[in-house]
Amino acid sequence: MSIPQMHLAAFVTAGPGRPGGWRYPSSVPGWLNADYYQDIARTLEAGRFDLAFFADILSVPDRFGGSTDTQLRNGALGSLRLDPLHVLSSMSAVTTRLGLAATVSTTYAQPYTVARSFATLDHLSGGRAAWNIVTSFQEAEARNFNRDSQFPRELRYERADEFLEVAGKLWDSWGEDALVLDAAEPLFTDPARVHAIDHDGEFFTVRGPLNVPRPPQGYPVLIQAGASAKGKDFAARWSDVIFCSHASFESARAFYTEIKERAAAHGRDPRQIKILPSITPIIGTTTANAQRLRDELYDLVPPLGGLSTLAYHLDVDLSTFPLDERLPEVEVPGVEGHYREVREITERDGLTLRELGKQYGGRVEGGFVGTAAEVADGLAEWFTGGACDGFTVQAPYQPGGFEEFTRQVVPELQRRGLFRTEYEGRTLRENLGLDRPEAGEWAHRAPLSRRVAS
Questions:
Q1: In what residue span(s) does the Luciferase-like domain sit (predicted)?
Q2: Quick one: the chain helix, strand, coil %, rounded to 5?
C-alpha cells in the first residue's frame, strides 16, 4: 500500500515581506531583479515543490495611525510589491514543472482580463498556472481604484461568485480542438467550436468569446484563503487549493475537517481540495542553534512593523490601543482567520500589544523550530494526523530560507516516503492529484442561486 504524499507550496514575496527577515544578514535584497526570482524558482523545482505562491497587495497600507510610515520605514507587508504575474512569467522561463500561482483580486479586476492572463500563463508554462482568488478588504486599496470606500464583505463575495462564473465561461468558450491550423483548407480555427458567452449579470456584462484557446489544465488551479463563514463556504465550493494559517495543530485539524465536510455538502469530492497551512520553519544543525536563530530573527522585528501588518490584516487601527496592554476583543472587518490566530496566541501566552507586534511580525507559524529531522517530525505529525494535505512554506528570510528547507528538510521527508522524489506529471493539476475540469465545471461550483439564474 502506497504512503500518502504531502504537497508543498512556497510562499514567495515579491518584495521584503517580513518586517524583520529582510534585516537578517543572510537575506539577499534582489527584489527588483528577475535573476533573484529565477534562482528561487530553480531551488524550489530542485526540491520538487508543487508551486510557488505569490500573495499581493494593491496599496501601501495606512491602517496603522492613518499613515504609511510604519510600513515603509520597517519594510513591512506592502512597502514594496511587484506585480506577481510578471514575476511568474520570468520564473516560468527557467522551470518546467514548478506551479506558478499569482494573487489577483476579484474586487478590482475584470473577468475577461483575468481569464485571458491566466489562460496565457497556462499555455506558456505548459499547464502550470494557478490563481489565488482574493476579494480585497482595505480602504487604502479602494482609494487606488476610484472608490471612496470598500465594498461590504457580503457584496464582495457575491461579486466574486459571478466573477468566477464569467471566468469559467470564458475558459470554456473554446472547444478542446477548436484550433485546427489546417493551412491547405485554409482553416485556422473552427468557428463552430468557439462561442460567445453572452453573460449579463448583476456585476458584469461580458459577450466573449475569449481570444485565447482553452487552458491546458482546463482551468488554472484555483486557490483561496477564506477564513470567515462566508469565505470558507466560497473556498469549499470553488477552490482546488486552500491556503490558511493556524496557531496550533488542533485549530488546523478543526479547519481541515470543517472544509472537507463543507466541500462534501456542496457535492464535491473532498479529495479534490488540497489544504496547505502556512508554516515558517527555522532550521538549525542542532535544536539550540535553531532556537538561537529564531531569537535572532525575533530581535530584528520592530514592534510597530509587525503591528502595522496586523492592522492591515484585521483592518483595525491598532494605534488606538495601549501598547503595553493586551489586545481587546474587537470587531474585525478584515481577515477573521488572522484575528482568531492572534487571539489564541494572546490568551495562551499573555502577550501585550507591543509583544504581539514583534510576535506577529516574526511569527513562526506552526512552531516548527529545530533540526531538519525535528521539523520533519512536526510536519509528519500534522500531515498524518489529519490537519492538512501538505504545507505552504514561508521563508523567515529570502532566499536562504527556501534553500535551507530544500537542502535539509525535503530529503528527510523523502526518506520517510512522505514526499515525492520526482514529479508525477507535467501540469500542476497532475502533480497535485487534481482532476482536469470538463467544460461547464464552473456550474458545479457556483452557488445554487447562480446555477439556477444562469
A1: 20-386
A2: 45, 15, 45
Residues 399-444 pLDDT 10s: 999 999 999 999 999 999 999 999 999 999 999 999 999 999 999 9
Examine the pLDDT at 249 and tell me if it is beyond 70: yes
Residue 300 CB partners (closer than 8 Å, separation 6+): 20, 21, 23, 24, 362
Nearest-angstrom CA–CA distance, 42 and 57: 25
Q: What value, to the nearest 5°, has the Cα angle with vertex 82 and ends 78 and 88?
A: 130
Q: Are 392 and 243 in contact (CB under 8 A)?
A: yes
Q: With respect to residue 76, please indicate whether it lies within any of the assigned structural domains.
A: yes
- Tell whether the model's pLDDT for residue 231 goes beyond 70: yes
How many structural domains is the chain composed of?
1
pLDDT-derived band of residue 453, with 50, 70 and 90 as boundaries?
A: low
Res 451 pLDDT > 70: no
3-state secondary structure 386-441: CCCCEEEEECCCCCHHHHHHHHHHHHHHHHCCCCCCCCCCCCHHHHHCCCCCCCCH
Q: How many residues in total does the chain contain?
A: 454
Does any domain span residue 2?
Answer: no
Q: Which three cell numbers stand for residue 416?
A: 520517510
d(CA 313, CA 77) in angstroms, rounded, equals 10
The residue range of the domain holding 140 is 7-453
For residue 207 the three cell numbers come to: 459577450
Work out whether the CA dihedral 88, 91, 96, 97 comes out positive or negative: negative
Residue 295 domain flag: yes
**Cα 124 to Cα 109: distance, rounded to the nearest angstrom:** 22
Would you say 389 and 7 are in contact if contact means Cβ atoms under 8 Å apart? yes
Grid cell at residue 184: 491547405
In sequence order, the 6+-apart residues with CB closer than 8 A to the CB of 376 are 409, 412, 413, 416, 418
Q: Is residue 1 part of a domain?
A: no
Amino acid at residue number 441: E
Residue 248 contacts residue 238 (beta carbons within 8 Å): no
For the domain that residue 323 is a member of, what is the CATH number? 3.20.20.30
- DSSP-derived 3-state class of residue 134: strand
H or E element in which residue 356 lies: helix 353-361
